[in-house]
Design brief:
2 domains, alpha+beta, about 280 residues, 8-stranded antiparallel sheet, two-stranded antiparallel sheet, about 50% helix
Length: about 280
C-alpha cells in the first residue's frame, strides 16, 4: 500500500546522487586523485578537470533536489524529520562545494577550465551560445511548468478546504454496524473546523480529534497525534470521502464520510457487494 507520507522516488534518487558526488568531491579535497590513483581496479589515465566535472554534477543535483522538494506534498514538507534531512543534505553538499571553490589548490580552477575549453573559432562560439540559450529557455520552461502546476494544486487545495469546512458530514465509523442496522447505528455527524479540529455530534472520544489536508487527502489524527485514518475526496466539492485503508492507520477499514446519509449507505452496499 502506497504511503502518502513519504518523499517521492525522484527526490530520493536526486538526494543519493547529490550526496555521492559531494562525497567524491570531498575525496579530491582530502586525499586527491592523480594519474596513479585507481578506483575499483580501474586505473585513471587522465584526471584533468575530473574534479571540476564532479563539482558541476554536484551543483546540478543540488538544484534538482531543491526542485523536487518543492513538489512534495505539504504533509511531507511539514514533517520535521524530512525538513531536517533535506536541510542537512543540502547544507553538507553546499559546504563541500564551497570548500572546493575556496581551497588554495582550486581557486583558479574555473579560469583554467574555461581557458582550456575556450572556443577556437567564431563558429564554435556561436554554437556554444546557441546551446546555452536553448538550455536557458528549457530551464525557464521547466520552472514555469512547475510554478503553474503548484499554482493549480494550491487553488485545488483551497477549493477542497473551503468545501470541507463549510459542510456537515455523516461519518460512518463502523461500516458493518451501519449496514446491519440499515443506517440507524454506527455513524455520527461531524464537522471539519477551519482551525484543524474536528467537531462531532456524539462519540467524542480520542480517535478523531484533528485533521490536515494534503491535496485531495484528508488525514485525521487521534488525541496522541498519531494518524488514525486517512480519507480521499472523490471530487473538488468534497461531498464524499472514502477511507484509503492504508496499513499505517488505526481506524476501521472502509469508513465513509458523506454529506448525505443515503449516499454513505449506497457506497457501502456497493463496496461490500464487490468484496463479497
Amino acid at each position: 500500500m502506497e504511503s502518502h507520507q513519504e518523499t517521492s522516488v525522484l527526490y530520493q534518487r536526486a538526494k543519493r546522487y547529490l550526496l555521492a558526488n559531494s562525497g567524491i568531491l570531498l575525496l579530491f579535497l582530502v586525499v586527491g586523485i592523480d594519474s596513479t590513483s585507481s578506483a575499483f581496479g580501474i586505473s585513471i589515465k587522465n584526471t584533468d578537470f575530473l574534479d571540476v566535472i564532479f563539482f558541476f554534477i554536484s551543483f546540478y543535483y543540488l538544484i534538482q533536489i531543491q526542485i523536487f522538494w518543492t513538489l512534495q506534498i505539504s504533509t511531507v514538507r511539514n514533517t520535521i524529520s524530512f525538513k531536517i534531512d533535506h536541510l542537512l543534505s543540502s547544507l553538507i553538499s553546499l559546504c563541500f562545494m564551497l570548500a572546493f571553490l575556496i581551497t588554495s589548490n582550486n581557486t583558479k580552477f574555473l579560469r583554467n577550465f574555461l581557458g582550456e575549453m575556450a572556443p577556437k573559432s567564431a563558429t564554435t562560439l556561436i554554437i556554444i551560445i546557441f546551446f546555452l540559450f536553448l538550455s536557458l529557455l528549457g530551464a525557464v520552461a521547466i520552472f514555469g511548468s512547475i510554478s503553474a502546476a503548484n499554482e493549480m494544486k494550491r487553488k485545488k487545495r483551497s477549493k477542497i478546504f473551503n468545501s470541507i469546512t463549510s459542510k456537515e458530514y455523516f461519518f460512518v465509523f463502523s461500516p458493518e454496524q451501519y449496514l446491519k442496522s440499515k443506517g440507524r447505528h454506527g455513524f455520527t455527524k461531524m464537522q471539519f473546523l477551519e482551525d484543524g479540529t474536528i467537531k462531532k455530534e456524539s462519540r467524542n472520544g480520542v480517535n478523531e480529534v484533528s485533521w490536515v489536508q494534503a491535496g485531495n487527502i484528508i488525514e485525521i489524527f487521534n488525541e496522541r497525534g498519531d494518524v488514525y485514518s486517512r480519507f480521499e475526496t472523490q471530487d473538488e466539492e468534497a461531498n464524499t470521502l472514502l477511507n484509503t485503508n492504508d496499513e499505517d492507520t488505526l481506524s476501521f477499514r472502509d469508513q465513509v464520510i458523506s454529506t448525505e446519509q443515503g449516499t454513505a449507505l449506497s457506497v457501502l452496499q456497493k463496496l461490500f457487494r464487490v468484496q463479497a
